[in-house]
Fold this protein.
Amino acid sequence: MKCGILLFPGTWSHQDFAHVCQDVLGCDWGYVWHKETSLRGSDCLILPGGFAHGDYLRCGAIARFSPIMDAVVRFAREGGPVMGSCNGFQILCEAGLLPGALLRNTSLQYRCGWVHIRTESLETPFTRALTPAQVLKIPISHGEGRYHAAPETLARLKANDQIVFRYATPDGRITDQANPNGALENIAGICNEGRNVLGLMPHPERAAEAILGSEDGLGLFRGMLDAIAARPA
Amino acid sequence: MLEARIHVTLKPSVLDPQGDTVRSGLASLGFTTVEDCRIGKFMVLRLAESDPVRARAQVDEMCRKLLANPVIEDYVFELREVAG
């Protein structure tokens, strides 16, 4: 199996990811249930959006203790490519694989719609196929997507080029109006220091076919598959 | 038997739009003395543990590992004796 799609009770975007893998990209994929302890030979991992474990206590707080997470943390520490979108991003933060946290949108409203994000770093397996400052049209769907980090964490993210995407206008300007949730410095996605773990609030799997309004999310998948192909077995 | 009463609150540096909205709701009801409002969580745990020192250490670990997220939240708790 190439692409392991994690499944928690309450995950909802897994079928969209599976559809992109199977019908758009034609790559191998399989679900990995949260109670399993093996990643079934996955070459890359996707943590989809949704409401894992009902988002009780905090988004991602309970999912972090699912039996599969030990294997996920090990895989990430060994350099395996991991992408968490939306709730997947929240889980990666709670699990300590990414710094910071995601808080209630400043508007207090659930935001569901198209946004634009500007690519801030090409130095991840997922963004290598993009161009510098490329603007992607991509949907969001979340109530708790306001990225927050302590000042020293933010400074480290900047120093290490770990800010991967920022909410922007269609022509790539970073403005308050383009920020759908009040995220710190319009941050929409970050990576870890090892650069192999990406978390982002938008949904690349819902922007993978022109008929659905955008295929700007496909670049992230292509980059991930290229990275797998290049990794020593 | 001991009971732990735990308060989890957002750190002062973290914006709390929910608290701000409640404050403006109170203001529109005429409670204009409210200068700030922060929303948090209150949890009550009953512990099969009678030693307060051990209980305190356990609850502190629970808060650090799960009940609060140290990136965004602070916590305080108190223990009290309850009928078993």
